[in-house]
Amino acid sequence: MEFQIGTEPMAGSEAAIFVPSNDAREHLVVIGNGMAGCRAVEELLARDAGRYRVTIFGAEPHVNYNRIMLSPVLAGEKTFDEIIINDRTWYADNRIDLIVADPVIAIDRTAKTVTSQSGRTVAYDKLLIATGSDPFIIPVPGKDLPGVISFRDMKDVDAMLDAANRGGDAVVIGGGLLGLEAAQGLTLRGMKVTVLHIMPTLMERQLDEAAGWLLKSALEARGQTILTGADTAEICGDGKVEGVRLKDGTLIPASLVVMAVGIRPCVVLARAAGLDIGRGIKVDDHMVTSDPDVLAVGECVEHDGNVYGLVAPLWDMCRSLADGLTDRHTGYKGSVTSTKLKVAGLDVFSAGDFSGGEGCEDIVLRDASRGVYKRVVVKEDRVIGAVLYGDTADGGWYFDLLKRGENVADIRDLLIFGQAFASGGGALDPKAAVAALSDDAEICGCNGVSKGQVVACINAGACSLDAVRAGCKASASCGSCTGLVETILALTLGEDVQSGPKTMCKCTSFGHDDVRREIVAQGMTSIPEVMQKLHWSTPDGCSSCRPALNYYLLCALPGAYVDDQQSRFVNERMHANIQKDGTYSVVPRMWGGLTNPRELRAIADVVEKFNAPMVKVTGGQRLDIFGIKKEDLPAVWADLNAAGMVSGHAYGKSLRTVKTCVGSEWCRFGTQDSTGLGVKAERMTWGSWMPHKFKIAVSGCPRNCAEATIKDFGIVCVDSGYELHVGGNGGIHVRVTDLLCKVSTEQEALDYCAAFTQLYREEARYLERTAPWIERVGVDYVKARIVEDDAGREALRARFLFSQQFMQDDPWAERVAGEHAELHQHIAQVRPLETV
Amino acid sequence: MTGDWLDIGSVDQITPGNARTLPVLGGEEIAIFRTTSGDFHALVNRCPHKQGPLSQGIVHGGVVTCPLHNWNISLKTGEALGEDKGCVPVIPLKVDAGRIFLLRDAVIGKRAA
Lengths: 836, 113
Ligand code: SRM
Ligand SMILES: Cc1cc2nc3c(=O)[nH]c(=O)nc-3n(C[C@H](O)[C@H](O)[C@H](O)COP(=O)(O)OP(=O)(O)OC[C@H]3O[C@@H](n4cnc5c(N)ncnc54)[C@H](O)[C@@H]3O)c2cc1C
Ligand code: SF4
Ligand code: FES
What we know:
The complex is a heterodimer of chains A (836) and B (113).
Chain A: E1 26-31, H1 35-47, E2 52-57, H2 70-75, H3 88-93, E3 97-99, E4 104-108, E5 113-116, E6 121-123, E7 126-129, E8 133-135, E9 148-150, H4 154-166, E10 169-173, H5 177-188, E11 192-197, H6 209-221, E12 225-228, E13 232-236, E14 243-246, E15 251-253, E16 256-259, E17 263-265, H7 268-272, E18 281-283, E19 294-296, E20 301-303, H8 311-325, E21 338-340, E22 348-352, E23 360-367, E24 372-379, E25 382-389, H9 395-404, H10 419-423, H11 430-435, E26 442-444, E27 449-450, H12 451-459, H13 465-472, H14 482-493, H15 512-521, H16 527-533, H17 545-556, H18 570-574, E28 577-578, E29 584-586, H19 597-609, E30 614-617, E31 623-628, H20 633-642, E32 655-660, H21 674-685, E33 694-699, E34 713-718, E35 721-726, E36 738-743, H22 746-763, H23 770-777, H24 779-786, H25 790-807, H26 811-816
Parallel strand pairs in A: 1-2, 1-7, 2-3, 7-19, 9-16, 10-11, 10-16, 11-12, 18-20, 32-33, 33-34
Antiparallel strand pairs in A: 4-5, 5-6, 8-17, 13-14, 14-15, 21-22, 22-25, 23-24, 24-25, 26-27, 28-29, 29-31, 30-31, 34-35, 35-36
Chain B: E1 5-10, E2 18-22, E3 30-34, E4 40-44, E5 58-60, E6 63-65, E7 72-74, E8 93-96, E9 99-103, H1 104-109
Antiparallel strand pairs in B: 1-9, 2-3, 3-4, 5-6, 6-7, 8-9
The structure holds siroheme, flavin-adenine dinucleotide, iron/sulfur cluster (SF4) and FE2/S2 (inorganic) cluster (FES).
């Protein structure tokens, strides 16, 4: 009997047409010497070693190796020899003809032969196509330049290692599993790596926002630059790669560009042979294609509408295929997959469905000190999804529970702590588990507080969570032991536990003030970071805490924080007021209530041009245009901008209007130029985001026609100067202002206004207007900070003006210039006229 | 096969935590959502309370909060959560090879007769 083993590398032309020897067995020809092709042969040999004569064609000049280990090879953790699955003796021992470096270029299903590039023609009885996938190359200019490579096979790894030896900058396009593993390898090989990812979070298909943020921070800490939302426009270079240009114009220098944006099943051969193709080669449950003598397996196939890009499903497919070829018809039923990132020191795992929704319950555990985030999604007492970051030891266990659809009702409360907890020790009741802890057991890791100390603190009179936090510091820092402390409270006091001050929302055990304090103290810079460090109990917050956190960060980091549009209420996202019919109203700013013919004409034109059904004078001394469609908003603003008008923020938790009266310029009683001062105040404060809406008014005399004494900051002009009033409110609970102080110059009035505004911005809770805030902290406190502390006032004023530098870009102008255009456009339209 | 599903665009057109609208000529507008976990859902863009445009709400977990009066609507079932009662039709959606597909009959069936 004769067999042939390809040498590495083997010149295809050396070999003549391979003539089958006098072997009467059925001939199985395999196209593709990769993971699925060889595994299928292994499974077949294990069932019936002698049944088929086997020939394998491989395009690569190698024996069968473990493709997923290319990442460790790139990272220098493994050599190529270490990742070989089957060496040449395996082929020899099993009498497999291996022909390498010679791709098959045609299949003739009538003659039942395949022909290779070198001209070999081989006849088959059964043909197995296992051609895997091709990397997807994004069609940008420069994609063919030398130095642009994909990450699929050993040749790509060699090319990357070559480039790394020359040093310099690398850009990896694609922040999925493959791209991040490439980036890590290149970093370890000494290159300066930038990862470009088009979506806002890394590995968005496998990870939720919280885990994606942790991953990004960890990679940045390793020296990589991660740009999310980065859309590649072109790869630049003259004869070789020199850089990548993004659609926003940024140019990133690079001598190497790795494209890892996705894969496409490799179906060219099968399509040319006339087999049924969908996204992949269509196969039945036994991996048989539309031709009964042709099978297909691996990433190149489509089974039941699904294509796979991971190895686990391939193993299942190979088993069913081998069963079928040896007359055992088990049949493949599709696979559930899980993902793990192979980057040393970064443990990331995900499986199943973690989108949440009706009937789903999220169990979240965050341990900021260990960098751990775990989320298990349970529905009808069954685990349906899991995302683990930082501690993936229980990934396999959750995945197993998920695949088996096991009922977890009994271990629900301990599930998140992992297998060791949930299935060990018999103590299934968490309360009993805490009761059983010894007095020495550490409860709060941050402050080193033992159970005995917590109990002592409670026995000494602390009967609420807050009192315990104040008394012994337990749970006062990161909050991850809050549940434990609450259980100890319940065990010690029973019914007598008092609930503490209101928490921000159901997602956290912290109140607003705690959150604000920690944001500043720990220098936090993003919403996912706050949620992680303060142990949010939900994966991405709710409609109460997201806007609050967005504001707190914006206030803490003027100029540096990138506003999160998804955390804004619709009005602030659209920069207009939503109406009951889903249209919007638009209110342009009229400084101090002043207007002129040019503005009025522009408003009149807009009303006519866009058929606005109503235009109205508001209670805030300006004009409101009603009934504008979201698609038309940018055009409306463009027209108003052209006449010099900017957004009036009638929609925002922000500075609204500055109402004025006519004042000394015209009024026979006016004592100062209230109109002019109002305009100055509005020019200074407009655009500022606040905990709630904020209104200012300036009246020219104590007759107070501008209603300054029911405004957040009101100025009443008198002969000798300016009375400054704070904390007024119209609305349901009318509150008259408190007198803050009297000043003698216009500039002082403005300075105090800026300082007061900033104090409110920094210290009030989100959605707390100045009136309830002052009721809470007392007007004396405000006076102490603004009137009695000159240096403090000056510092507040300076912080306000600093922050205003970044706030006074007209949001309308940005939208008119095209920013966030998608918010105003439909994704598509359906005109269902042609069918049904 | 593809005749049963309408391809309405690539997944990249909706960023996580966001929604886009799909007007249906002579029918009801549809809102397509992408959660921060990256899942896609489609609902008729009309709150069961007072017809608020759900596409404009804040998305968190698998829920959207209506922009008009803060009802929370499940993206998976279209049902109002908590104390509120009501339901909005869900449009079957699938993602395939980076494209978003809606069940044709569900989209067109929403067209007024
Ligand atoms: C348009 C306007 C009525 C009008 O046609 O005159 C108006 C309209 C609304 N007001 Fe007002 N308020 C308007 C002047 C006022 C005034 C008068 C004033 O500013 O001098 C007050 C009393 C003063 C005050 O704020 O203390 C006022 C007290 C309220 C309140 C109660 C606030 C409170 O703290 O108690 C609300 C409810 C809220 O904000 O939660 C409210 C809420 C609203 C909302 C935003 C309701 C909503 O959430 O959709 C209305 C938006 C309609 C829209 O889409 O445009 N509006 N609202 C006025 C816009 C002024 C502007 O040019 O920006
Ligand atoms: C860097 C990297 C890391 C990965 N990490 C993981 C991971 O951690 N976990 C995981 O589950 N999966 C991972 N994968 C995916 C996994 O490697 C694939 O799912 C698996 O290799 C697919 O097997 P296959 O046999 O279908 O394709 P392949 O292994 O690609 O085999 C196909 C073979 O067919 C050859 N071929 C193609 N056309 C022809 C032709 N006309 N004639 C002859 N030969 C041909 C190709 O050259 C190739 O050798 C990773 C992939 C890469 C590239
Ligand atoms: S008073 Fe009531 S109805 Fe009138 S605009 Fe204000 S919120 Fe709307
Ligand atoms: S219309 Fe949606 S909550 Fe009222």
